[in-house]
Amino acid sequence: MDINDYRVALDALDAELVALFCKRMELCGGVAQWKQAHGKPIYDRSRERDKLNQVSALADERFSSYTRCLYRSLMGYSRAYQHELLDAPSQISERILRARAETPELFPSRATVACQGVEGAYSSLACEKLFPEPDIRFYPAFEDVFAAVDRGECRYGVLPIENSTAGSVKANYDLLVKSDCYIVRSTRLLVGHSLLAKPGTKMEDLRVIYSHEQALDQCARFLASLPNVEVRPCANTALAAKMVAESEDPSVAALSSRHCAELYGLSTLAESVQDAGANRTRFICISKKPEIYPGANRTTLLMVLKHRPGALFSVLERCNELGVNLVKLESRPIPERDFEVQFYFDLDIAAASPTLTRLIPALEAEAEELKYLGSYLEIV
Predict the structure, then answer these.
(1) CB-side neighbour CA atoms (13 Å) of 44
(2) What is the pLDDT averaged over residues 339-364?
(3) pTM above the 0.90 mark?
(4) How far is it, in rounded angstroms, from Cα 116 to Cα 132?
């Protein structure tokens, strides 16, 4: 046989396989109706395990493991189809549709916005990128920003969520999960850290450098070159600059933005001391209720998966089936639950796409818990 003969034979076999697959799915639909009538759950772990053992035993030994993988996928498709047939409309899908219908066409140019820190904080710079005319109110901690939005003191809050060098701002991911707030916009800001001190201070005078812990992480190599200087974390890079400006001690400095040098009357001892030249921080804008503006093309979800083999693979498979690109996947420990994790997913999918409202129920079927954190547009 030459290559064309093999291809003809495969095409004929594929036609049979597709017909058999469709027939199998129809039978699974009948199984779903029976389970509903008899009050049985769709997922039967014991039955699926026995089925995998059965089909792998039927296969040629060379293909036994491949057969098991194939049928694990087939049973995942069957469960998804059964849920599609039987489940009531997803509350999350309905929330997305309602938010799209209730959200205005234009993102507001002016609003009351909560930011952590003081004037000059990177969050306020990101806020000004998102809102041409913001009324910014500063709060001491990230928790206070969420609380201000939750209480209705501010319509929005702007917070850092991840950095290209130091990774995720884990505290804000955890607060996002605990809160009832939603992401409605995001942006990326090029972050350059400068070493700022009181006028007249020289490098050899320095004994203490203040900054936010993320900024300290982002400038680790530079700080390592200053062995006789103590590093002290504080709540915010702009607050560090303000503390240095108000201090009477000439041996202190701050890692902060160039903007803060002018704002607080400080001298720049060194510019762009971050480890990576293209050091960017991603900021999110949160609101009390979901707002989905036209152009929203990213959705963030939190999932706690069922404790069974292949649970994460099944979720990724559901995304693959519908052609949904996964742009971020991160695990975080679940507080007060030993060695259990939750997953954050960023999906590259238009909020207006019917695919999203089809995907959500399929993911709910695979998850122990699914929380919707927002659909939004990222401003680069």
Answers:
(1) 16
(2) 88
(3) no
(4) 19
250-270 pLDDT, tens digit per residue, is 999 999 999 999 999 999 999
Name the pLDDT band for 225 (thresholds 50, 70, 90): very high
Joined tokens for residue 270: 């060194």
Choosing from 281, 299, 300, 345, which is the catalytic residue? 281
Q: Quote the CA–CA distance of 190 and 188 in Å, as a whole number.
A: 7
What backbone torsions phi and psi does residue 58 show, to the nearest 5 degrees? -70, -25
Average pLDDT of the chain is 91
Q: What is the pLDDT of residues 140-170, one digit of tens each?
A: 999 999 999 999 999 999 999 998 878 888 8
Report phi then psi at 90, rounded to 5.
Answer: -65, 135
Beta bridge partners of 138: 115
Which residue type occupies 300? T
Predicted pLDDT at 362: 82
Q: Reply yes or no on whether 345 is catalytic.
A: no
3-state secondary structure of 355: helix
Residue 198 CB partners (closer than 8 Å, separation 6+): 244, 245, 247, 250, 252, 266, 267
Q: What are phi and psi of 127, to 5 degrees?
A: -60, -45
Cα gap 145→220, rounded to integer Å: 28
**Cα–Cα separations (whole angstroms), residue 92 to 54, 88, 373:** 37, 11, 10
Ramachandran region of residue 376, left (φ > 0), alpha (ψ -120 to 50) or beta?
Answer: beta
237 tagged catalytic: no
Q: What residues does 287 pair with on adjacent strands?
A: 156, 182
Of 107, 283, 299, 345, catalytic: 283
User: Which tokens belong to 342?
Assistant: 């939750």
Which one, of 122, 126, 131, 127, lies nearest residue 188 by Cα? Answer: 126
Instruction: Decide: 208 and 230 in contact? Cβ < 8 Å.
Output: yes
Q: Is the pLDDT of residue 139 over 90?
A: yes
The band of 366, judged by pLDDT with boundaries at 50, 70 and 90, is: confident
Contact 236, 121 (CB under 8 A): yes
The pLDDT, as a whole number, for residue 88 is: 65
Q: How many helices and strands (H and E) does the chain possess?
A: 13, 15
